[in-house]
């Protein structure tokens, strides 16, 4: 009986020791329920260091901070305790139950995954109004406003939306990015390019202590009547907020907070165009226009051509309506019109001209009237329809065959927008039929210089091939040179991931540190737990690497750790990348 107790006790101790030695990789969140205006912290914790940590895609969230890395070690009763944590700060994009997917890491050549985490996002919650809280200060001093030029336009009347970011004089903005672009459903939209952001003084809700910049200008033409919604523009802004601390000279120290601001949705009540007085030929033109029909000539001979241009100029929805058709007598051959647009957009809407250019070829001698063409449009400034006529134009054909058919056929007869074209034997007499072609090459290929060059070229290539082969053998025999080239390729291979994210500070330095880590792990055969600066220095010294090269490598590692938390320019990142590539190449040449 006593023997059974001892065996049971030993089994319990063995099971406990095995359990304590198990590898853990967990995801922990600061809360499982939060408002859409709150932030969530998620920690990925492991009890043993690993390689190739890959976070989830955080679908439904915006990463506003992180990754932040922390490591802690302790010894208790001769046992070592280790914990490494990757922390992220997230902002939810929408309400509902959101799932944070699995993160992965490689530990001892095995891949470990965290469990799925569910978070419930509710409507915005009211936060305690702490006047000294940095986020509350940012909320009170930064505002995004959408200014709409007209809230009740007519159908197809231009309105403008100008997005302004207001910032109080006591705070500042160091960076921003768009996280939710508005979709202008039921509108024809055109963004206006802004060349440079100009800071201007302005007033917000009667407070003159503000500055603002114009971020976007958009021109909209409503395509439906009734209440239409303009979706909000949302930004993630890095705000510089003053603190109670002061520097050596008494100046206020600033702290940075990430703040999400939105312009809010706007509702536009679009009025239909009035039916009273609407012309039968109205095609949807809204604005202030001029209308003309212009011909390149009014006198010509039969089988010659002329151009007739139907043109509308002015300010309005120029791209959103069709021009009236030009109706011509049957004896004038007409080709499909060429449509041209010379339209620009500013805060008043589209302006410029549109035209249809017709090519006309008369077949017979005589006078042919081009009937007057009417163009109707709605003028929002007077809230009335207007009709403009081009006036009749007479085409005088001076010379050519006489039309023996009924003279009434000289007037165009319109049937479903089509007209008959009278065909004659000389209707293309104006087209040149004499090609007057000349041979490009009058000499023969046989026994020419090109012939002899093509024949002798293969024989000339033989000595070149022998020279190339000799150079290749010399290069293969150059052991030292091949080693240098191999080292350069190795450096580029390990640093390829860092080069892809060059310009993104956090991702770049994580990739750079991982590249240096993986390089040493491959070359020195060390595990992650042995990855200390002292161990690296000892191992590289034993492999006869130059002292200066070792120190440069360690300096780069230290810089990777610090750079993620300090301001770094793209130029500095490029320099760090080049230094890392150069150092890896040098060390690989010197390793024995």
From TrEMBL:
The keyword Membrane applies. Coiled coil: none annotated. It holds the Pfam family BatD. InterPro entries: BatD. The chain crosses the membrane at residues 451-468. The keyword Nucleus does not apply. Residues 1-21 form the signal peptide. It comes from the Bacteria. Keywords: Membrane, Signal, Transmembrane, Transmembrane helix. This is BatD family protein. It comes from Psychroserpens ponticola. The lineage of its organism: Bacteria, Pseudomonadati, Bacteroidota, Flavobacteriia, Flavobacteriales.
């Amino acid at each position: 009986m006593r023997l059974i107790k001892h065996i049971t006790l030993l089994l319990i101790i063995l099971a406990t020791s095995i359990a304590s030695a198990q590898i853990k990789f967990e995801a922990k969140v600061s809360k499982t329920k939060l408002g859409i205006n709150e932030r969530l912290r998620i920690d990925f914790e492991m009890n043993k260091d690993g390689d190739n940590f890959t976070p989830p895609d955080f679908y439904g969230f915006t990463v506003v901070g992180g990754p932040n890395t922390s490591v802690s070690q302790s010894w208790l009763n001769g046992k070592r305790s280790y914990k490494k944590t990757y922390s992220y700060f997230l902002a939810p994009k929408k309400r509902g139950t959101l799932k944070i997917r699995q993160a992965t890491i490689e530990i001892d050549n095995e891949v470990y995954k965290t469990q799925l985490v569910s978070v419930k996002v509710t409507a915005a919650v009211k936060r305690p109004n702490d006047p000294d809280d940095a986020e509350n200060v940012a909320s009170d001093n930064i505002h995004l406003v959408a200014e709409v030029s007209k809230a009740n336009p007519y159908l197809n009347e231009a309105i403008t939306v100008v997005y302004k970011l207001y910032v109080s004089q006591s705070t500042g903005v160091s960076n921003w990015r768009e996280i939710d672009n508005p979709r202008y459903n039921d509108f024809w939209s055109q963004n206006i390019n802004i060349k440079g952001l100009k800071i201007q003084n302005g007033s917000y809700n009667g407070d003159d202590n503000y500055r603002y910049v114009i971020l976007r200008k958009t021109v909209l033409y409503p395509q439906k009547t009734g209440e239409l919604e303009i979706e909000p523009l949302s930004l993630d802004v890095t705000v510089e907020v003053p603190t109670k601390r002061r520097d050596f000279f008494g100046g206020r120290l600033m702290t940075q907070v990430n703040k999400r601001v939105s312009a809010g949705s706007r509702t536009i009540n679009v009025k239909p165009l009035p039916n009273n007085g609407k012309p039968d030929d109205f095609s949807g033109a809204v604005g202030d226009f001029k209308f003309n029909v212009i011909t390149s000539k009014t006198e010509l001979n039969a089988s010659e051509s002329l151009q007739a241009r139907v043109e509308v100029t002015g300010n309005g929805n120029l791209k959103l309506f069709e021009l009236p058709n030009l109706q011509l007598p049957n004896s004038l051959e007409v080709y499909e019109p060429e449509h041209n647009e010379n339209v620009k957009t500013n805060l008043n809407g589209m302006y410029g001209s549109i035209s249809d250019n017709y090519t006309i070829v008369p077949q017979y001698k005589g006078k042919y009237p081009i009937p007057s063409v009417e163009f109707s449009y709605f003028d929002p400034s007077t809230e009335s329809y207007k009709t403009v006529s081009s006036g009749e134009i007479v085409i005088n054909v001076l010379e050519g065959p006489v039309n023996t058919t009924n003279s009434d056929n000289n007037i165009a007869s319109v049937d479903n927008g089509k007209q008959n074209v009278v065909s004659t034997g000389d209707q293309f007499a104006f087209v040149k039929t004499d090609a007057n072609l000349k041979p490009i090459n009058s000499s023969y290929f046989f026994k020419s210089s090109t012939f002899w060059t093509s024949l002798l070229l293969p024989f000339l290539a033989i000595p070149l091939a022998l020279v190339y082969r000799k150079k290749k053998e010399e290069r293969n025999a150059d052991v030292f040179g091949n080693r240098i080239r191999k080292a350069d390729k190795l450096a580029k291979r390990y640093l390829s991931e860092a080069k892809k994210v060059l310009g993104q500070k956090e991702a770049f330095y994580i990739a750079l540190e991982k590249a240096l880590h993986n390089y040493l792990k491959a070359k020195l055969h060390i595990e992650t737990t042995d990855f200390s600066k002292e161990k690296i220095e000892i191992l590289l010294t034993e492999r006869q690497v130059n002292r200066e090269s070792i120190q440069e490598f360690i300096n780069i590692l230290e810089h990777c750790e610090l750079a993620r938390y300090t301001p770094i320019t793209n130029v500095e990142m490029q320099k760090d990348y080049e230094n890392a590539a150069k150092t890896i190449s040098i060390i690989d040449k010197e390793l024995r």
